[in-house]
Amino acid sequence: MDIHTKSVQVPDLAWPQNSAVPPLYQTAAYAYHGIEEADRVFRSEEPGYTYTRGGNPTTNALACLIADLEEAPAGVIAASGMGAVAAAILALQPTPAPIYVAREIYGGTVGLARRILEPLGFAFTWIDTHSIDQVEHALAAGGPGVVVLESMSNPLGRVCAVDEVIDRAHRVKGRVVVDNTFATPYHARPLSWGADLVVHSVTKFIGGHSDLILGAVVGTEERVQKASQVMDLVGMTPDPFASWLAFRGARTMALRMERASANALGLAEALRHVRGIDEVFYPGLATHPDHAQATRLLKNGYGAILAIRVARGRAGADRLARSLRLVPFVPSLGDVMTTISHPVVASHRDLTPDEQAAVLIDAGVLRISVGIENVGDLIEDFKQAAAEVDHA
């Protein structure tokens, strides 16, 4: 056999089935022993994979793990968190209908509703999820649709009565998607509150190392299957290597969240009385407007995200950010290291200035994603950086 022929052959080996961790199946397609075998797999008459766009063993292992963490019957992985949000909405509502979006929500979700769904005929409506009366009024006026909200909001850590919002939506035959990225399954499992589907940006705390882009949808078998069909046909395909990395990260999520949440509480308490910082937002503080609600709904603490309002607005926020020695400016979150971001510039730039002001986001607000460092080192770093704000 010529070397050109030999070089493209796949060794005929018995692949081990007892690997201690799921192996990486970095393949786009799968080979069969004949037409009949392929036909049986395509018709789901025997187990197997047809094309990685529609399924991959490594990715499926990650989906099963996240579903188990969320105590969900099923899960599916998307190429990104936004892919997961889009697939979840379309799985629950494949034809144009009202889309009710919580006032405090990630700007990318707003962009999806406005730039993609609204032009397709979906009716985008803001709702104040902190007012059950307003939720009921909006649903009564608009009719059945999909409510999209977060278990903990980005970036101020607002926690509404999610279970009550879900109940009101179900009363009028609406459906609810809960983004559980900030809380993670360590702090909240929204399916137990009645959510129809739960989504994650796996990029964040589940992956935990800022080295991958993935999303997840979990829920019932039927609903997850519909979301999976959307992902397959639209091409929201996760990369197997990213799934492999995320599986590795997910196995330490509980340990990381335990440490990061404790650090966030310690940092939030320490920054409350620091000159140069006007306000601290963290649901674990008794001063937070949703502290009682967060205590009722969340488990094992209050999460790893806090926000601060820095004196002197954008100039002060920029000065503080540039003065930090241990904490880089990264427009993302969920890493093992602490990072900061500026919502007006990054995560919430899809909101108008009036919409930002309505949810108390202004140019002086910085979001802090707290990591697993020594909290004393973080406190000292923020204190010395805050001392520089007066020089902005």
Task: Describe the fold and architecture.
- By secondary structure, the protein is α/β, with parallel strands linked by helices.
- The protein has helices spanning 3-6, 35-42, 57-69, 81-92, 107-117, 132-142, 162-171, 184-187, 221-234, 240-250, 253-271, 291-297, 313-323, 353-358, 375-386; strands at residues 74-78, 98-102, 123-127, 146-150, 175-179, 197-201, 215-219, 277-281, 305-310, 339-341, 365-369.
- It folds into 2 domains: 52-250, 3-Layer(aba) Sandwich (Aspartate Aminotransferase, domain 2); 254-391, Alpha-Beta Complex (Aspartate Aminotransferase, domain 1).
- It has 15 helices and 11 strands.
- It has a 7-stranded mixed β-sheet with strand order 1-7-6-5-4-2-3, with helices on both faces. It has a 4-stranded antiparallel β-sheet with strand order 8-9-11-10.
- Helix 4 packs across helix 9.
- The longest helix has 19 residues, at 253-271.
- The chain is globular.
- The N and C termini lie far apart (72 Å).
- The mean pLDDT is 94.
Task: Explain briefly what this protein structure is.
With 392 residues, the protein is α/β, with parallel strands linked by helices. It contains 15 helices and 11 strands. The termini are far apart.
